[in-house]
Amino acid sequence: MSSAVHLVPELAEDAKGDLAVMLTGGGARAAYQVGLLKGISRHFPDLRIDIITGVSAGAINAVYLAAHQGSLAEKAERLEQMWLELNCDSIYTFDVKMFLPFRSALASILPKKTRWSQTRPHGILDTTPLRNLMCRVLGVPPWVPIPGIERNIRNGDLAAMALMSLDYSTGQTVRWVQGRSFDVHEGPNRRTALTHFTVDHVMASSALPFVFPAARIGNEWHGDGGIRLAAPLSSAVHLGASRIIAMSTGYQRTQAEASMPLVCGYPPAAQILNQLVNAIFLDVIDEDVLRMERMNEMLRKIRPEDRGGLKPIDLLVLRPSMDLGKLAGQYEKNLPRQLKLLVRALGARETDSPDFVSLLLFEPEYTRRLLDAGEADVELRLDEIRAFLGAQTPQIAAAG
After folding, report:
1. What is the DSSP track for 300-328?
2. At CA 66, angle to CA 65 and CA 70, rounded to 5?
3. Which residues sit opposite 54 in a β-bridge?
4. Is 210 helix (H, G, I), strand (E, B) or coil?
5. What is the DSSP letter of 114?
6. Range with the lowest mean pLDDT among 19-28, 132-141, 164-173, 338-347?
7. pLDDT tens across 363-394, in order?
């Protein structure tokens, strides 16, 4: 049974309002989102998605959907084909010398003649292959605005798109927006910026800290937007969405599963990394869902004229019915040799659910399983999805 919480909308069929899709992070796990899209498009091939938001690896899928023409079924088919053709070499290259302990720190204090190079490493992995892939798929150099997004907005096929990144120099989460006017919601640790999206924005949003190098946008260096993103659903809300489908890549464990240790004895580095991955990239959506549910419940008890312009947001959360981290353990052997040796040295085989490995496992056997899992989960939730998209009688349902 799927373990997700959703709200089925109260709106009438002729007044459903804008539909948004929010694509969360998770590295290679983003293939699961493509499976969800493929499954939904099988039953709703012409479904219109007005607003697309993405963060981290979800930015890759988001920009693909926003930039290409055709029905949802056609886009999902092409996006699936792109993922099936990927492997780790399509995304990054790995040089073990880049991971020498304290390399950057030592390079700054050793005499010049003993330094490894004059250039400090910017990440464990070099993501030039991913940059080249995105340029090829989108048909532009990395710094040139993606014409397909502007075309789809101009033609009315898309209302708006948003991606999130972290400005490393200020520590602010940046919401990049292209499209319709939006409700600006800023604070000391967040800001909103109008833009015309480029490949560099995708590279910035998906730049896993320490692992992938930051991307330069203007004079600033940006990294993964999921690092301190407290409210991943907010971008769609501020862009005017009335309904949101949130596609998470995090498995929601049962109480019994959550109480079972994943390692024996002192936790290896891999297990600690797993917890950081979950806390930063996978768990935050659950907290935001709970907040939105509570807000919806409160607003529905208040007369519309007394809501101060606020409105309930109908929300459907789709997530894996299996642990994608545990699944990754079956395919860890497919990692590039040097990277495989590194993750094993960190203790990846000592934990039952190597979540951090799943972020890097862009290998066909694993991504095929993720794609299939996404499609299968749509079938499991099909009645709920139909009710949500059909805007039937309101109800609150929790599965799992």
Report:
1. HTS-GGGSTT----EEEEE--SS-HHHHH
2. 65
3. 23, 163
4. coil
5. G
6. 338-347
7. 999 999 999 999 999 999 999 999 999 843 33
